[in-house]
UniProtKB/TrEMBL annotation:
Pfam families noted in UniProt: PAP2
Transmembrane regions listed in the UniProt entry: 12-31, 51-78, 85-104, 132-150, 157-179, 185-205
UniProt-recorded name of the protein: Phosphatase PAP2 family protein
The keyword Transmembrane helix is annotated on this UniProt entry: yes
SUPFAM superfamilies xref list: Acid phosphatase/Vanadium-dependent haloperoxidase
Domain Phosphatidic acid phosphatase type 2/haloperoxidase residues, every copy: 85-200
Organism: Ruoffia tabacinasalis
Key words of the record: Membrane, Transmembrane, Transmembrane helix
Amino acid sequence: MNKKYLNYSLLALIPFLIIIAIVIFNMNAIQHLDNLITLEIVSWRTPLLSSFFNAVTILANPMSVVSTVVILAVIAYLLTKRIDLPLWILITNAIGSLALNPLVKNIVQRSPPNEAIRMVKESSYSFPSGHAFSSMVAFGCVIVLLILSLKPSVFRHILIVFAFLIVLFIGFSRIFLGVHYFSDVLAGFSFGLFWLLLSLSFFLARRPEIKAKK
Protein backbone atom coordinates (compact mmCIF):
# COMPACT_ATOMS: atom_id res chain seq x y z
CA MET A 1 0.00 0.00 0.00
CA ASN A 2 0.99 3.61 -0.51
CA LYS A 3 1.81 4.63 3.08
CA LYS A 4 1.00 8.31 2.60
CA TYR A 5 -2.55 7.68 1.42
CA LEU A 6 -2.99 4.85 3.91
CA ASN A 7 -2.20 7.30 6.73
CA TYR A 8 -4.56 9.87 5.22
CA SER A 9 -7.30 7.24 5.06
CA LEU A 10 -6.87 6.36 8.74
CA LEU A 11 -7.09 10.05 9.69
CA ALA A 12 -10.26 10.39 7.61
CA LEU A 13 -11.78 7.44 9.47
CA ILE A 14 -11.43 9.00 12.94
CA PRO A 15 -14.62 11.15 12.83
CA PHE A 16 -16.60 8.13 11.62
CA LEU A 17 -15.33 5.93 14.46
CA ILE A 18 -16.10 8.58 17.07
CA ILE A 19 -19.62 9.17 15.75
CA ILE A 20 -20.50 5.49 15.33
CA ALA A 21 -19.31 4.77 18.88
CA ILE A 22 -21.55 7.53 20.23
CA VAL A 23 -24.52 6.43 18.11
CA ILE A 24 -24.20 2.80 19.23
CA PHE A 25 -23.32 3.23 22.90
CA ASN A 26 -24.80 6.59 23.91
CA MET A 27 -27.43 7.68 21.40
CA ASN A 28 -28.89 10.37 23.67
CA ALA A 29 -25.56 12.23 23.67
CA ILE A 30 -25.82 12.95 19.97
CA GLN A 31 -29.57 12.74 19.32
CA HIS A 32 -30.34 16.03 21.08
CA LEU A 33 -27.74 17.92 19.04
CA ASP A 34 -28.91 16.26 15.82
CA ASN A 35 -32.51 17.23 16.53
CA LEU A 36 -31.55 20.86 17.18
CA ILE A 37 -29.55 21.08 13.94
CA THR A 38 -32.32 19.39 11.95
CA LEU A 39 -35.04 21.69 13.27
CA GLU A 40 -32.91 24.77 12.63
CA ILE A 41 -32.11 23.80 9.03
CA VAL A 42 -35.70 22.73 8.33
CA SER A 43 -36.83 26.20 9.45
CA TRP A 44 -34.89 27.69 6.52
CA ARG A 45 -37.16 26.04 3.95
CA THR A 46 -38.60 28.19 1.21
CA PRO A 47 -40.10 27.05 -2.11
CA LEU A 48 -36.94 28.15 -3.94
CA LEU A 49 -34.51 26.43 -1.58
CA SER A 50 -36.67 23.32 -1.46
CA SER A 51 -36.64 23.05 -5.25
CA PHE A 52 -32.88 23.66 -5.34
CA PHE A 53 -31.98 21.00 -2.76
CA ASN A 54 -34.44 18.52 -4.26
CA ALA A 55 -32.48 18.89 -7.49
CA VAL A 56 -29.10 18.71 -5.74
CA THR A 57 -29.91 15.51 -3.87
CA ILE A 58 -30.72 13.77 -7.16
CA LEU A 59 -27.02 14.03 -8.07
CA ALA A 60 -26.30 11.29 -5.51
CA ASN A 61 -29.28 9.05 -6.24
CA PRO A 62 -28.21 5.53 -7.30
CA MET A 63 -28.84 6.02 -11.03
CA SER A 64 -27.13 9.41 -11.03
CA VAL A 65 -24.07 7.99 -9.27
CA VAL A 66 -23.90 5.06 -11.69
CA SER A 67 -24.11 7.44 -14.65
CA THR A 68 -21.48 9.76 -13.17
CA VAL A 69 -19.08 6.90 -12.44
CA VAL A 70 -19.46 5.30 -15.89
CA ILE A 71 -18.94 8.64 -17.65
CA LEU A 72 -15.96 9.35 -15.39
CA ALA A 73 -14.43 5.95 -16.20
CA VAL A 74 -14.79 6.61 -19.93
CA ILE A 75 -13.22 10.06 -19.57
CA ALA A 76 -10.40 8.55 -17.50
CA TYR A 77 -9.65 6.09 -20.28
CA LEU A 78 -9.76 8.77 -22.99
CA LEU A 79 -7.43 11.05 -21.02
CA THR A 80 -4.92 8.43 -19.89
CA LYS A 81 -5.28 5.61 -22.45
CA ARG A 82 -5.06 3.24 -19.48
CA ILE A 83 -7.62 0.64 -18.49
CA ASP A 84 -6.47 0.29 -14.87
CA LEU A 85 -7.58 3.77 -13.76
CA PRO A 86 -11.15 3.41 -15.12
CA LEU A 87 -11.36 -0.03 -13.50
CA TRP A 88 -10.22 1.41 -10.17
CA ILE A 89 -12.94 4.09 -10.40
CA LEU A 90 -15.64 1.52 -11.18
CA ILE A 91 -14.58 -1.03 -8.56
CA THR A 92 -14.06 1.55 -5.79
CA ASN A 93 -17.52 3.03 -6.27
CA ALA A 94 -19.24 -0.34 -6.69
CA ILE A 95 -17.78 -1.92 -3.56
CA GLY A 96 -18.33 1.20 -1.48
CA SER A 97 -21.90 2.02 -2.48
CA LEU A 98 -23.23 -1.52 -2.93
CA ALA A 99 -21.48 -3.30 -0.06
CA LEU A 100 -19.65 -1.24 2.56
CA ASN A 101 -22.15 1.52 3.28
CA PRO A 102 -25.23 -0.75 3.25
CA LEU A 103 -23.39 -3.15 5.58
CA VAL A 104 -22.82 -0.41 8.16
CA LYS A 105 -26.42 0.81 7.80
CA ASN A 106 -27.74 -2.65 8.61
CA ILE A 107 -25.38 -3.10 11.55
CA VAL A 108 -26.26 0.23 13.20
CA GLN A 109 -29.95 0.32 12.16
CA ARG A 110 -30.58 3.95 13.05
CA SER A 111 -33.99 5.26 12.08
CA PRO A 112 -34.19 8.44 9.97
CA PRO A 113 -35.78 11.66 11.25
CA ASN A 114 -39.52 11.81 11.85
CA GLU A 115 -41.52 11.24 8.68
CA ALA A 116 -43.46 14.46 9.29
CA ILE A 117 -40.44 16.60 8.31
CA ARG A 118 -39.24 14.52 5.35
CA MET A 119 -39.62 16.11 1.93
CA VAL A 120 -38.59 12.98 0.01
CA LYS A 121 -39.25 9.28 0.54
CA GLU A 122 -36.60 7.38 2.50
CA SER A 123 -36.92 3.67 3.24
CA SER A 124 -33.41 2.73 4.37
CA TYR A 125 -31.68 3.18 7.70
CA SER A 126 -30.21 6.58 8.41
CA PHE A 127 -26.60 5.96 9.51
CA PRO A 128 -24.37 6.68 7.69
CA SER A 129 -25.85 8.75 4.87
CA GLY A 130 -25.55 6.83 1.61
CA HIS A 131 -25.78 10.02 -0.41
CA ALA A 132 -22.94 11.61 1.58
CA PHE A 133 -20.83 8.46 1.22
CA SER A 134 -21.51 7.97 -2.51
CA SER A 135 -20.97 11.63 -3.38
CA MET A 136 -17.67 11.72 -1.48
CA VAL A 137 -16.40 8.62 -3.31
CA ALA A 138 -17.73 9.50 -6.78
CA PHE A 139 -16.77 13.17 -6.83
CA GLY A 140 -13.61 12.33 -4.92
CA CYS A 141 -12.71 10.17 -7.93
CA VAL A 142 -13.40 13.21 -10.11
CA ILE A 143 -10.88 15.21 -8.06
CA VAL A 144 -8.31 12.39 -8.24
CA LEU A 145 -8.71 12.23 -12.02
CA LEU A 146 -8.30 16.01 -12.32
CA ILE A 147 -5.09 15.91 -10.27
CA LEU A 148 -3.69 13.00 -12.28
CA SER A 149 -4.60 14.27 -15.74
CA LEU A 150 -4.48 18.09 -15.66
CA LYS A 151 -1.50 20.28 -14.88
CA PRO A 152 -1.96 22.80 -12.05
CA SER A 153 -3.92 25.79 -13.32
CA VAL A 154 -6.73 28.10 -12.34
CA PHE A 155 -9.06 25.93 -14.41
CA ARG A 156 -8.07 22.77 -12.51
CA HIS A 157 -8.48 24.52 -9.17
CA ILE A 158 -11.95 25.76 -10.16
CA LEU A 159 -13.03 22.25 -11.18
CA ILE A 160 -11.74 20.77 -7.92
CA VAL A 161 -13.52 23.40 -5.82
CA PHE A 162 -16.71 22.86 -7.84
CA ALA A 163 -16.58 19.08 -7.26
CA PHE A 164 -15.97 19.65 -3.55
CA LEU A 165 -18.91 22.07 -3.31
CA ILE A 166 -21.20 19.53 -4.99
CA VAL A 167 -20.31 17.02 -2.27
CA LEU A 168 -21.03 19.56 0.49
CA PHE A 169 -24.34 20.61 -1.08
CA ILE A 170 -25.45 17.00 -1.45
CA GLY A 171 -24.70 16.34 2.21
CA PHE A 172 -26.52 19.49 3.31
CA SER A 173 -29.50 18.58 1.10
CA ARG A 174 -30.05 15.37 3.07
CA ILE A 175 -30.46 17.35 6.30
CA PHE A 176 -32.53 20.07 4.62
CA LEU A 177 -34.90 17.49 3.14
CA GLY A 178 -35.33 15.86 6.55
CA VAL A 179 -34.06 12.37 5.69
CA HIS A 180 -30.77 12.39 7.61
CA TYR A 181 -29.27 13.86 10.74
CA PHE A 182 -26.11 15.96 10.74
CA SER A 183 -24.14 13.10 12.32
CA ASP A 184 -25.34 10.73 9.56
CA VAL A 185 -23.97 13.06 6.91
CA LEU A 186 -20.69 13.75 8.70
CA ALA A 187 -20.16 10.02 9.21
CA GLY A 188 -20.98 9.38 5.55
CA PHE A 189 -18.38 11.92 4.44
CA SER A 190 -15.77 10.50 6.82
CA PHE A 191 -16.42 6.88 5.84
CA GLY A 192 -16.51 7.76 2.13
CA LEU A 193 -13.22 9.67 2.29
CA PHE A 194 -11.63 6.80 4.22
CA TRP A 195 -12.71 4.28 1.60
CA LEU A 196 -11.61 6.50 -1.30
CA LEU A 197 -8.13 7.07 0.17
CA LEU A 198 -7.70 3.44 1.25
CA SER A 199 -8.61 2.25 -2.23
CA LEU A 200 -6.28 4.86 -3.74
CA SER A 201 -3.42 3.69 -1.52
CA PHE A 202 -3.79 0.13 -2.86
CA PHE A 203 -4.03 1.34 -6.45
CA LEU A 204 -1.02 3.67 -6.36
CA ALA A 205 1.12 1.07 -4.58
CA ARG A 206 0.72 -1.15 -7.63
CA ARG A 207 1.03 1.69 -10.12
CA PRO A 208 3.94 3.81 -8.80
CA GLU A 209 4.38 5.41 -12.21
CA ILE A 210 1.04 7.22 -11.83
CA LYS A 211 1.63 10.62 -10.27
CA ALA A 212 -0.06 13.99 -10.03
CA LYS A 213 0.53 16.30 -12.96
CA LYS A 214 3.02 19.08 -12.28
